[in-house]
Amino acid sequence: EKLRQQDSCCNMLMVFIHTNRFKSDDKQYGKNIMIHLPYPTNSSITISKYAKLGLKKIFKPGYNYKKAGVIVMGIIPENQRQLNMFCEEDPKHKQLMQVIDNLNYSIGRKKLKLASQDLGRTWKMRQEKLSPRYTTKLNEIIKIKLFDTNE
Fold first, then answer.
1. Which of 26, 35, 53, 104 has CB atoms 3.0–4.6 Å from 13's, for a disulfide?
2. CATH number of 35's domain
3. Domain-located, residue 127
């Protein structure tokens, strides 16, 4: 979506996964892979397809992964992309991405997603050691009771 907002395309992806290096009792593993796309694109469908292919190459079962991600690279302006003579992007992708972006703009960001995208929010910030927010949350203000010692 950001690439399309910027009228840009990417021609490379980096897919990465790794375990928590601070959990020494867990098996450790980390890997990344660079994927050169056959043509510059800003289609979420194409990017998702190649990101999943990259993940299949580096994923190993049996590890407790802490982090995974996709970084788009080789960003170029859309009007300067060089097309591939032997393979090209499905022309329907551009129309579909435009419809998805327009709907997300009108009904709310990230309401409409690809079926391959996670529909639920699986990541949640850990807040077990969160300090009290006395200055911003009224329900966390310290309450003091005074007792009259003269009675």
1. 35
2. 3.30.1490
3. no
